[in-house]
Design brief:
The structure holds two protein chains of two kinds. Chain A is mainly β. Chain A has four domains: about 110 residues, Porin; about 90 residues, no CATH class; about 80 residues; about 110 residues. Chain A has a 20-stranded antiparallel beta barrel. Chain B has one domain: Alpha-Beta Plaits. Chain B has a two-stranded antiparallel sheet with strand order 1-2. The longest helix of chain B has 17 residues. Chain B is globular. The chains are: A mainly beta, B alpha+beta. Chains A and B meet through strand 3, strand 4, strand 6, strand 7 and strand 11 of A and helix 1 and helix 3 of B.
Chain lengths: ~400, ~80
């Protein structure tokens, strides 16, 4: 914490003249008919100090959450602080930072990996993770990005020796973008090493990537397409001790504006893995979304969105959703939402593919560009160990003060 | 162009259907276009396998035990 304060002070001193300070503060809370106690509260504060070639950002997020009895996840109360300083020197960018995650309550149990010599759980107390990011704009439209990190986990075992959990990792890529930004070719990789001597766990993996992103410019009017193909070669093992398969990932996204107010989005992805038994399809996903927006130049535009999405891997998920925000008067808008989902559930006794439906209505009010407040009432129904139905009340605020010139 | 996208989607589904199907320990996919970096997946993972890095959830393939809590928790359906 002293290091962070020193960094903060140094950043502020450097920003004595010509600097700007942008801040935001978000708060939301929810309660439900299962517990009638606050089931979730989140407070997020962000600050960005910009002073010429030096930026300094702080993000602090506090969350406490209770499942309300529906899903046996227990209670957690965590504070997560992320600070980063970014220094630009010509084409180079250097950004050291640190992330401090602190469990304030007893927290959720941390389960030891299956591959560890010792099985069991420990109390999760948080982690500390310093990192360093590097970026460089190179000649001929090349760009290098890299990131290295360390992580030390604070775990208190119920019995036995401390796991002594630490990890290190690095990732990097070199990308070339053609002059009209139609094509980006990237080569890179990542590696990670995790050790927990106290429980006899040691795991390493590495990955090499080659990717190609295509965004054609010669398209019919009001149409955008983005395609991506990525080959990842893996070296390492998963939690069962099986080799991680090499993967080919393909993705395609299109947006077509049928009118200036109406857009249609279509996206599809597929992943294929090369494992012991050869290449197999690992996952596919497809989705479509229709969005109608009017009054974009107003403080509160009116929008209607309908969408659906289907995924199939070793399990299936599907989702249908409809969301609307209707401008009523001044900064007031009415919210209506419906969300139907099918997917896996970890609730004991629930079907392997559980269905749920959420219907919600609410109001939100925007005061100029600086403050948004909202409240929403929802009714949820889920097929778990039995059909459960519950109500939920949530509310929140987003505060964006004007940017300060120092 | 929509026709090309639709055709690609249909081909992908057919490719999956024509195979025996992925093994139960196949790596999860995070759709970075849908992920908003809310951190709910990171909160519920009991193995410390998920970390939000620069706004995207990143899953450590060696630590992930495929308990699917992150899949269930994700408000955007970005993990599959």
């Amino acid at each position: 914490m002293r290091t962070i304060l020193a960094l903060l002070a140094a950043g502020l001193l450097m920003a004595a003249e010509g600097a700007t300070l942008a801040t935001t503060l978000d708060f939301d809370m929810a309660t439900d008919s299962l517990g009638f106690t606050p089931s979730r509260r989140t407070l997020t504060a962000r600050a960005l100090l910009e002073a010429g070639p030096v930026d300094f950002s702080v993000r602090d997020r506090y969350v406490d959450a209770d499942s309300g009895g529906l899903v046996p996840r227990g209670f957690l109360g965590r504070n997560d602080l992320l600070t980063e300083a970014r220094v630009s020197a010509g084409p180079l960018q250097i950004a050291p930072g640190i992330r401090l995650n602190t469990e304030i309550t007893d927290g959720l149990p941390f389960v030891y990996p299956q591959a560890a010599a010792v099985s069991g759980t420990a109390s999760y107390d948080g982690f500390t993770s310093p990192f360093l990011r590097l970026g460089a704009d190179l000649p001929h439209s090349f760009r290098f990005e890299g990131r290295g990190w360390m992580l030390t986990r604070d775990l208190t075992p119920a019995e036995g020796a401390s796991p002594d959990w630490s990890a290190t990792g690095a990732s990097g890529s070199l990308a070339w973008t053609c002059p009209r930004r139609i094509l980006t070719v990237s080569a890179g990789g990542a590696m990670s090493s995790t050790e927990a001597d106290g429980i006899g766990y040691d795991s390493d993996w590495s990955r090499a990537d080659l990717s190609l992103r295509l965004s054609p410019r010669s398209l019919p009017a009001r149409t955008q397409i983005l395609g991506e193909v990525r080959l990842s070669s893996w070296d390492g093992q998963n939690y069962l001790g099986n080799d991680l398969g090499d993967r080919v990932y393909c993705g395609l996204r299109t947006v077509r504006w049928l009118t200036p107010a109406l857009s249609f989005n279509l996206a599809g992805q597929a992943a294929f893995d090369n494992r012991e038994d050869g290449w197999t399809a690992a996952a596919v996903a497809g989705g479509a979304r229709l969005v109608w927006t009017t009054g974009r130049d107003q403080l509160v535009p009116t929008s209607l969105a309908f969408g659906g999405r289907y995924t199939a891997s070793s399990f299936v998920t599907s989702r249908l959703e409809a969301r609307s925000r209707v401008h009523v008067i001044a900064g007031l808008a009415a919210l209506l939402e419906a969300d139907l989902r099918l997917g896996p559930s970890v609730v004991t006794g629930a079907p392997s593919s559980s269905r749920s439906a959420v219907l919600g209505a609410g109001l939100e009010y925007r005061f100029d560009r600086n403050l948004l407040v909202w409240a929403r009432v929802e009714n949820a129904r889920a097929e778990l160990s039995e059909i459960q139905s519950w109500g939920r009340l949530s509310m929140g605020a987003e505060f964006v003060p004007a940017i300060l010139s120092l | 162009m929509m026709r090309y996208a639709s055709a690609a989607l249909v081909l992908a589904v057919l490719a999956l259907c024509s195979c025996e199907g992925p093994a139960g320990d196949t790596q999860l996919v995070v759709d970075s276009e849908l992920c908003v970096g809310c951190g709910r997946c990171e909160e519920v993972c009991p193995y410390g396998a998920v970390e939000v890095v620069e706004g995207d959830a990143v899953i450590d393939p060696a630590l992930c035990h495929l308990c699917l809590r992150c899949v269930e928790e994700c408000p955007k359906g970005a993990i599959y």
